[in-house]
Amino acid sequence: MPSFNQSIFQPTVFFLTGIPGFETYHAWLSIPFCCLYAIAISGNGMILFVILTESSLHEPMYYFLSMLSFTDLGLCLSTLVTMLGIFWFNAREISFDACIGQMFFIHGFTFMESSVLLVMAFDRFIAICNPLRYATILTNSRIIKAGFAIIIRGTLALVPLLLLLKRLSFCRGHVLHHSYCFHPDVMKLSCTDTKINSAFGLAIVISTAGLDSILILLSYVLIIHSVLNIASPEERKKVFGTCVSHISAVAIFYIPMISLSLVHRFGKHAPPLVHTLIANVYLLIPPVMNPIIYSVKTKQIRKAVLKIFLSKLI
């Protein structure tokens, strides 16, 4: 049995948590988790493939959708090894450096997804409120620049946060609440002052996901105002229909993220199972649901996917 009373001068090792109270059933519980990972990886992989191979989908809206699928795929793969390692081999131990690396990818892809949802909202705003200038505003070069800006933004936000975490000393029990490394969870185990880390972490969340959510909300206020000026009810319904997929993607991304943040900040006395379930929903539901939503709600994606399947069958 590993000792959790390590000296702060020894290399720090953390111990991840599976499903508290259900350790004896981890092998069985791995089955639904494997199914979710398979759906997320195959679904997002399929979206990326059809957008890259189908020339009819080489438009700004679908380029942004491919960015969303890429971030969902990255988010999913960031936790795959540790999650299934716990369920199959009870491999709970993770080194501090490996934990830092996993946090970089988890939080990095999270910030990137928030940015992608923002540019997708901008895409809908231009398409509905200024359709005549859509092609001249969202050119290929600007889309490429937006993609690089999203990556740079996420990286610049994370590097200082993780460097601040590396300066901390850990002398408490090194058991984390989740099956992956999550910044607030790791920070709580420090025996040194974490006020700077907490303040900087909060500032980053507000300046990325917080600002993005406000701008997304503002874009939809402007979209609704523009749509309400359309005389025909049928046209209104048609225009709103083009936004349903994106609104669903925004909801399934921000609601679990806000829930997890609230649990970490105010749910100190909540059962460990609550922490674990919300953490798994936060990381797995968006990658699983986004391909399903866009395949069902977006006619062009659905047709492209069916075309590929039918060609394989023939």
Q: How confident overall, as mean pLDDT?
A: 89
CATH level-4 homologous superfamily: Rhodopsin 7-helix transmembrane proteins
Describe the sheet with the most strands. 2 strands, antiparallel
Number of helices: 11
Q: Name the helicity range.
A: over 70%
Q: Identify low-pLDDT runs.
A: 1-11
- Count of domains: 1
CATH C-level name: Mainly Alpha
From the helix content, strand content and strand pairing, which structural class follows?
mainly alpha
One letter per element, helices H and strands E, the order comes to: EHHEHHHHHHHHH
Q: Give the DSSP E fraction (strand runs of 2 or more residues).
A: under 5%
Gyration radius, rounded: 21 Å
Quaternary state, please?
A: single chain
CATH A-level architecture: Up-down Bundle
CATH topology title:
Rhopdopsin 7-helix transmembrane proteins
Q: Give the beta-strand count.
A: 2
Largest beta sheet: strand ordering = 1-2
Span of the ends, CA to CA:
56 Å
Shape: globular
Subcellular location: Cell membrane; Membrane
Membrane topology: Multi-pass membrane protein
Transmembrane segments: 25-52, 64-88, 100-122, 143-165, 199-227, 239-257, 277-296
Keywords: Cell membrane, G-protein coupled receptor, Membrane, Olfaction, Receptor, Sensory transduction, Transducer, Transmembrane, Transmembrane helix
Structural account:
By secondary structure, the protein is mostly helical. It has helices spanning 26-53, 60-89, 96-129, 134-137, 140-166, 183-187, 195-228, 233-241, 244-266, 272-297, 299-313, and strands at residues 13-15, 93-95. The protein is 75% helix and 2% strand. The longest helix is centred in the middle third of the chain and has 34 residues, at 96-129. The termini are far apart. Mean pLDDT is 89; it is low at 1-11.
